[in-house]
Amino acid sequence: MEKLELKYEGKAKRVYDTDEKEYFWVAYKDDATAFNGEKKGQIVDKGLVNNQLSALFFEELEKAGIPTHFVRLLSDRDMLVRRLDMIPLEVVVRNIVAGSLSKRLGVEEGFELSRPVVELYYKDDALGDPMVNESHVAAMGWASGETARKIQEMGLKVNSILQGILVKAGIQLIDFKLEFGIYEGKVYLGDEISPDTCRYWDIETREKLDKDRFRRDLGKVEEAYQEVYRRVKAVLS
Question: Quick one: which of 126, 130, 122, 174 has its CA closest to 148?
């Protein structure tokens, strides 16, 4: 497999073409951003943790019947993925009130929802990724009604699978963001599943083990990322 020219560089990853046109080479970075890029920094070995942890989760999701873009690891910080035609939507699944939901509803962080909440956001950094609903999606032609429902259903299934893994690791899954795309006419899960895209709390102490430590200047950011990876790897080994 040969890495070719840089196709796209985002906040957390670089995506390269390969000599096999159905695949991308994804390189994870240590760069960290928050608040739509207003806060920037570095988290030591974040790229390694996010690459390795995402691979572990993708493998488990594949076993459970969720198709993902993951093909194989190429190195500690690189993975080979299927070239998806990305759907311009983020699917956010929430189990516990935190972050923007706390501010939006005026509910204290940590309140346990009676059922998972699924939200859709339009992917556009310039607009701040605004929340949308299925009517917006249909009217704007971002995805068919069937696809919009499918990615939300897949989001809930991913939630159930991840919760089953994480509870064994002593971690509570607060909320998380997913991205999806189309490959050979079928919906696949893409992007990553990591402390960058999920909120994780220690079940016993309620200590935050995710990017909120960077956003809120809580310290011990690298340690939190490493701790999640260590626990999940131990459960899945």
Answer: 122
Q: What is the pTM of this model?
A: 0.96
Summary mean pLDDT of the chain: 97
In CATH terms, the fold of domain 85-223 is D-amino Acid Aminotransferase; Chain A, domain 1 (3.30.470)
What's the whole-number mean pLDDT along residues 17-32?
97
The domain 3-82 belongs to what CATH superfamily? Answer: Phosphorylase Kinase; domain 1 (3.30.200.20)
44-69 confidence digits (pLDDT tens): 999 999 999 999 999 999 999 999 99
Which residues 6+ apart lie within 8 Å of 14 measured at CB? 6, 8, 26, 27, 29
| Closest of 142, 85, 145, 95 to residue 119, by C-alpha | 95
Residue ranges per structural domain of the chain:
3-82, 85-223
